[in-house]
Amino acid sequence: MRNPFYKFTIKAVVGLAIVFGVHLLVLNLLNLPLFENRIVLSYVVNLALIIVVFGALYFFREKYKGQLGFLFLIGSFLKFAVFFIVFYPFYKLDNTITRPEFASFFVPYVIGLILETVSLSNWLNKLE
Question: Per the UniProt record, which residue ranges are transmembrane (predicted)?
């Protein structure tokens, strides 16, 4: 069996790259600026965070088998903390968060969360 961490990493990179392309296409069709609202940083940070969280869960799979759900929740807390530290102050500079600003962070976050949850579910179901 191939290493689930490497398999997940490939899925995450390809999946978020495709979603990033679609996101830019939608912005272009709506005549909105393509590379504003820290969109590239958001996709890169979300990709890095889901790979780190999945990697940590894979690394600790034997030692903390019964606590993997809690570790997953800690990873989700980490993602929210990064949002509030890195992105929120920038988005609130004008005292409002616009839809493109919200989508710049939320779209890669949700896609990453879905990829992570499905992959973890499949992987955990195969653990003894």
Answer: 12-34, 40-61, 68-90, 102-124
Domain ranges for the chain = 4-126
Residue 93 contacts residue 71 (beta carbons within 8 Å): no
**Which are the contacts of 33, defined by CB distance < 8 A and separation ≥ 6?**
27, 100
For the whole model, what pTM was predicted? 0.87
> How far is residue 47's CA from residue 126's CA, in Å, rounded to a whole number?
24
Alpha-carbon distance 52 to 60, whole Å? 12
pLDDT at 66: 79
103-122 per-position pLDDT tens digit = 888 899 999 999 988 988 88
The CA–CA distances, whole Å, from 20 to 28, 43, 90 equal 12, 7, 20
